[in-house]
Design goal:
There is one protein chain. It is built from 11 helices and 10 strands. The protein has helices at 14-28, 36-44, 49-56, 65-94, 117-129, 145-148, 186-194, 235-250, 303-308, 325-333, 346-349; strands at 135-137, 142-144, 168-169, 178-180, 199-208, 220-230, 256-261, 266-275, 292-301, 317-324. The chain has a 7-stranded mixed beta sheet, sandwiched between helices. A 3-stranded antiparallel beta sheet has the order 2-4-3. Helix 5 crosses helix 8 and helix 5 packs across helix 10 (325-333). The structure holds 3,4-dihydroxyphenylalanine. The site of 3,4-dihydroxyphenylalanine (DAH) has 11 residues, from strand 9 and strand 10.
Length: 353
């Protein structure tokens, strides 16, 4: 012990003072707001326990008195501070109904959703065609056989129906006539029945097929259908539009090549292929070594289809095309299994946001 400090060792009263402080602090812990004043009075008040001790200082030898007085005052200060703290703590608790915000507490993590890669693809395709004047239309997913097949030049027993086997919807009034559309092509009819040329529309939406599901086939999928009708539209317009589309979506170096095909609702019909965006046409795994990737079916709208909706084929002509949204998305993002889109696996989906 250093010489300058107050020695407590043999100070009379010190033990008593310490005992009072200990009890007082111990009690104070449980004292509620309405009892604080009682506590103050019994320890710090005029008739309180510290004062009683102070009074007894007078009976000590004169040499001891100052130190005893200092010790008693130190105890008074200590209790006074403890009282203020207790008071502050209690009144803060009492203000519990006043909102208290601790801005340093970390926030709750919220899950922010993102757009599905197919939604992104549909939007990007719509955006690619918009500058050419194509408007997006929405037509029914539950269709009549008439629109899905007949008006598209596919009569009831036409072998082409095998390509579009589907799910039928029970309809008492017209048994066997209502189905889930197998492609977006019925939108062509629905639009042409509503408006006169010039026509420039993009129909996009869900389609259904009775399919053996594998890495490239789903029974529920999305298609994008384009249709342009006016006087004087030729196949070179189709070619130009498709090339513009391929360049917008897959890069400015893309080329389009057109190969003959068959669809009942177009004449001539074709399949459009795009120079491979991965190898640039050299041949790679993505294009199966050919340098070309098939992206859609298309053709010049069949004169019978035009006649069926009341358009005069001698006056108007036009092209149509149809593509699978999943296929375009798979090519763009390098996805090798179509089933990933609809597995709802966040590890897959998060990669696109
Ligand atoms: N509807 C066709 C299919 O699902 C795709 C198609 C081919 C659409 C040629 C067209 C077209 O508009 O002209 O297989």
């Amino acid at each position: 012990m250093r010489a300058s400090s107050i020695s407590t060792e043999d100070l009379p009263l010190q033990d008593e003072i310490d005992a009072v402080v200990t009890t007082a602090l111990d009690q104070l812990k449980d004292v509620q707001l309405d009892a604080l004043d009682d506590w103050r009075r019994s320890y710090l008040g005029r008739g309180g326990r510290l004062n009683a001790l102070l009074r007894s200082i007078g009976s000590l030898p004169a040499a001891e008195r100052p130190r005893a007085g200092q010790a008693a005052n130190a105890a008074r200060k200590k209790l006074g501070t403890a009282l203020k703290q207790r008071e502050a703590a209690l009144s803060a608790e009492g203000e519990g109904d006043v909102e208290q915000i601790d801005v340093t507490i970390p926030g709750y993590r919220t899950n922010v959703g993102g757009l599905h890669p197919i939604t992104r693809t549909l939007r990007d395709i719509a955006r690619a065609f918009a500058p050419l004047g194509f408007r997006v239309v929405d037509t029914p997913e539950v269709e009549w056989d008439e629109y899905n097949f007949e008006k598209l030049n596919i009569p009831p027993d036409h072998p082409a129906r095998d390509m579009w086997d589907t799910f039928f919807v029970k309809n008492e009034a017209r048994p066997g006539a209502m189905l889930l559309r197998t492609h977006t092509s019925p939108a062509q009819i629905r639009v042409m029945e509503q408006i006169r040329p010039p026509v420039r529309v993009l129909a996009m939406g869900r389609c259904y097929r009775y399919e053996d599901v594998d890495a490239t086939h789903e029974s529920i999928f999305y298609q994008i259908e384009g249709l342009a009708i006016d006087s004087g539209i030729t196949m070179s317009d189709l070619r130009g539009v498709l090339e513009y589309f391929a360049r917008t979506m897959f890069g400015r170096d893309r080329k389009i090549r057109i190969r003959g095909s068959f669809f009942p609702f177009t004449e001539p019909s074709c399949e459009a292929e795009m120079s491979c965006h991965v190898c640039g046409g050299e041949g790679c795994r993505v294009c199966s070594g050919t340098g070309w990737i098939e992206i859609l079916g298309a053709g010049m709208v069949h004169p019978d289809v035009l006649r069926g909706v009341g358009y005069d084929p001698d006056r108007y002509s036009g092209f149509a095309f149809g593509m699978g949204a999943e296929r375009i998305a798979m090519l763009r993002y390098g996805i090798d299994d179509i089933r990933n889109f609809y597995r709802n696996d966040l590890r897959f989906l998060r990669q696109f946001n």
